[in-house]
Amino acid sequence: MNFVALRMLMGDRAKFLGIIMGLTFASLLITQQSSIFVGIMTRTFGFITDTALPEVWVMDPKVQFIDDVKPLRDTMLQRVRGVPGVEWAVPLYKGLIKARLDNGNFQQCNVIGLDDATLIGGPPEMVEGSIADLRKADGVIVDVVGASTRLAKIPRDADGKPIRGAKPEPLKIGDTLELNDRRAVVVGICRNSRTFQSQPVIYTTYSRATVFAPKERKLLSFVLAQPAGGLSGADLVARIEAQTGLMAQTRSEFSWTTIMYFIRYTGIPINFGIAVTLGFLVGTAIAGQTFYNFTLDNLRHFGALKAMGAGTLRLLGMIVQQALVVGLIGYGLGVGLAALVPVLSGGSELAFRLLWQTLALTGVAVTVICVLAAMISMVKVIRLEPAIVFKG
Questions:
Q1: What's residue 195's pLDDT?
Q2: How far apart are CA 71 and CA 218, in angstroms?
Q3: What is the dihedral of CA 208, 213, 216, 217, to 10 degrees?
Q4: Which among 9, 15, 193, 375 could bridge 322 via Cys, Cβ 3.0 to 4.6 Å?
Q5: 326, 5 in Cβ contact below 8 A?
Q6: H-only helix segments in the chain
Q7: What is the pLDDT of residues 287-296, one digit of tens each?
Q8: Do 64 and 264 form a contact (C-beta atoms < 8 A)?
């Protein structure tokens, strides 16, 4: 009977392919849009992920997410260091500073100032140079994407004039930048996680970053702290908040705080949710209608099997088998095509992160579509009279 069910399913190739196309489209759209949504959300806390060493982030109580910087007084660093259970605490500057390019244009850059002594919070991977080179005069480290795109230099001829139509050349070690009318020398190129903001990322020391930054009374963005001994991050957070009045969060908590801000106050979840819902509804409509028409066309065959003694449960099992077969094929094709999206994007800025939870979500959605399509067809089979095979 299983063989008969498959022969019935594949006998009408047009409807068979139509059901698979509907399920493939649904699984493709659900997987792709969900993965892009996860990729975008991952980028929102990309800087926190890169700053992996400190367990606790200390900030102004009004901070809502990683890029919502509300500077602190420099004295807060010593107050955090004085909290029992703090093994070490270092300052971190994070701000947007304009860089003047050699063609006269300006580019906003995300400047990160690291503790001068320890350089904690530096880039996760160096492509060229060393993080220790930041101690050189006017030294900065530029991320590889920014160095090859927005901060790239226009080639010049022997007279120093820009060559028209020439392709910009990536920044390299030894090149200079102008940050807020101050000279900066590139001493390294790094690779970091892509962030929600698309500006180039420039690392330097904390003292140099405060010189680059516009003059303000407060310049300390965050304090990075590490618990001592066997003290947990959560316990240290409670101690810091109780003693300093500042807000402290573990690395994981701060990441989720950032994610929830974008979920609550932006239209990103709604936009992607609509796309996923449309994929589900369209897949349900196509697969359900096609599967129902397929059942109607094969009612005589089901009637003949029922007349020969096949029970209703057996016939329903055949429908379930047919639904599972097309569901597995459509799911596999859709997920496979979605997995090719980052490959076909050719290293573009597309945010795409495929998780096993996304695959499970797509599997549940496809299963629901197949169940709904099968249930619609089951109604006809349950009400089927064997005499239909002898009519007309």
A1: 85
A2: 5
A3: -20
A4: 9
A5: no
A6: 2-11, 13-44, 46-50, 75-81, 144-148, 206-212, 233-244, 251-265, 268-297, 299-307, 312-339, 341-344, 356-382
A7: 777 777 777 7
A8: no
The residue behind tokens 């220790």 is: 132
Per-residue tokens: 355: 């998780």
Geometric angle at alpha carbon 289, from 311 and 3, rounded to 5°: 40
DSSP of 153-184: BPPB-TTSPBPTTPPPBPP-TT-EEEETTEEE
What is residue 117's predicted lDDT score, i.e. its pLDDT?
93
CA distance linking residue 156 with residue 248, whole number of Å: 49
Q: What's the sign of the alpha-carbon dihedral 322, 327, 332, 334?
A: positive
Return the closest-CA partner of residue 112 out of 30, 8, 193: 193
Residue partners of 282: CB distance under 8 A and separation at least 6: 22, 25, 26, 29
- List pLDDT tens digits, range 346-362: 666 778 888 999 999 98
Low-confidence winner among 46-50, 320-324, 381-385 (lowest mean pLDDT): 381-385
Q: What sign results for the dihedral spanned by CA atoms 217, 200, 91, 240? A: positive
- pTM (2 decimals)? 0.83
